[in-house]
Amino acid sequence: MKTITDFQHKKILVLGLAKSGVSAALLLHKLGAFVTVNDQKPLDENPQAQHLLEQGIKVICGSHPIELLEEGFEMIVKNPGIPYSNPLVSGAIAKGISVLTEVELAYLISEAPLIGITGTNGKTTTTTLIYKMFEADRKKAIIAGNIGEVASQVVQQATKEDHVVIELSSFQLMGVDQFRPHISIITNIYDAHLDYHGTKEEYVKAKLNITKNQTEDDFFIVNADQEELFQFAKQSKAVIVPFSTKKTVANGAYVENGEIYFRGEKIIKLQEIALPGAHNLENILCAISAVKLARVSNEAIREVLSTFSGVRHRTQFVRELNGRKFYNDSKATNTLATKSALAAFSEPTVLLAGGLDRGNDFDDLIPYLNNVKALVTFGQTAHKLAETARKAGIFEVVKVETMAQAVTQAYQLSESGDTILLSPACASWDQYKTFEQRGDIFIEAVHTLN
């Protein structure tokens, strides 16, 4: 890591813990800052805060006292999940105190070039593909951010020979100042997280922070099929590298005659790709663009794309049994994600869906239900999804209580040649702690069938 003096003897407040807060606090302490950590969880229930206390770092737990703003902090490094409406955060901004997230620290100390990936959908799959392509080409790479380890932690061990591949949320990108990846990617942008950002304009602005400090020596990979986003991207000083599933883009990645090209060079035939779905084709084009810019071989790209069948819980192939193929898309916590999953399959499909009721209906799924022959519903939204199915002309609808029951019913409703797809269109919190837990239970239930 770079030796920097930017934080030496500065009073810095780390607001909120979790993994990123712990990493930021320890790093700032190592860099000579006077660090105070503030976390809402009481100290006696907070092993992370206790660990920091043992390292000689000042810790205040149990609440976010507004009085902290009177202690002369020069900077706040906040957990991305803490909203800007938090009184400590809004009060700090009013006082002119910088409010950053830990990815800013990662950039400042990193010797390795950074590849930053953001977007509404596809971030994790794109990040994983890029990492695996580097790995297949025997080039050093480290995966970080929302998947992998905390960025400010892994860059401490990274060298100039490494590539640090970071998945970035809009929450993280709101809190950057000098952050500058050598290669940045926006996979796509749809309406999301408006409860946090307030408006789509603010959400887009946060995403575009990924390129705001890039120069003509850097690259910005962007979705040319989203015209509004592509026009915004032209504000960047970086070299624009477009990708498109619909048209030829001379300076980027595209599909033509059943093959993927990058800047006119044939890379791979679509029929050789293991990862299903039109939405994943966007992710593949992003990944190819990034690694070709980093001089990864076509052989390594083809090796990954011909074998990689998906990230866990994201249209993940689980098993084939008696001609039925099972897919786990538990990460689909909204209708947009479920639309993408449904569009990935042309076979007759038994859909498993349901979960937390956020007050919305599901009628926007109707145009995507043409191949759905049966629906198994569960959770708080079971009745709403059943009504949507009836509107779509699906009359095989079964309501169940558990995921194990859902898998058994789906198998009974299916026949050889069918796809059985878990894509809930809802968050998991009515029945499960996380979407990962929901997906793991689905996988376990699938493997008990015989």
Task: Describe the structure in brief.
The protein has 450 residues and is α/β, with parallel strands linked by helices.
Folded structure, characterized:
This is UDP-N-acetylmuramoylalanine--D-glutamate ligase. It comes from Bacillus kandeliae. By secondary structure, this protein is of the alpha/beta class. It folds into three domains: 90 residues, 3-Layer(aba) Sandwich (Rossmann fold), CATH 3.40.50.720; 202 residues, Mur-like, catalytic domain (UDP-N-acetylmuramoyl-L-alanine:D-glutamate ligase, 3-Layer(aba) Sandwich), CATH 3.40.1190; 133 residues, Mur ligase, C-terminal domain (Protein-Tyrosine Phosphatase, Chain A). The protein is built from 16 helices and 20 strands. The strands form three sheets. A nine-stranded mixed β-sheet has the order 7-8-6-9-10-11-12-13-14, sandwiched between helices. The protein has a six-stranded mixed β-sheet with strand order 15-16-20-17-18-19, sandwiched between helices. Strands 3-2-1-4-5 form a five-stranded parallel β-sheet, with helices on both faces. Helix 5 crosses helix 11 and helix 15 crosses helix 16.
CATH class of the largest domain: Alpha Beta
Count every beta strand, where a strand is a DSSP E run of 2 or more residues.
20
CA radius of gyration is: 23 Å
- Domain count: 3
Report the mean per-residue pLDDT as an integer. 94
Sheet with the most strands: spatial strand order: 7-8-6-9-10-11-12-13-14
CATH topology of the largest domain: UDP-N-acetylmuramoyl-L-alanine:D-glutamate ligase
- How many helices? 16
End-to-end gap: 52 Å
Major sheet summary line: 9 strands, mixed
Please indicate the percent range of residues in DSSP E strands (runs of 2 or more).
Answer: 15-25%
Q: Point out poorly predicted stretches.
A: none
CATH architecture label of the largest domain: 3-Layer(aba) Sandwich
Portion in helices: 25-40%
Shape: globular
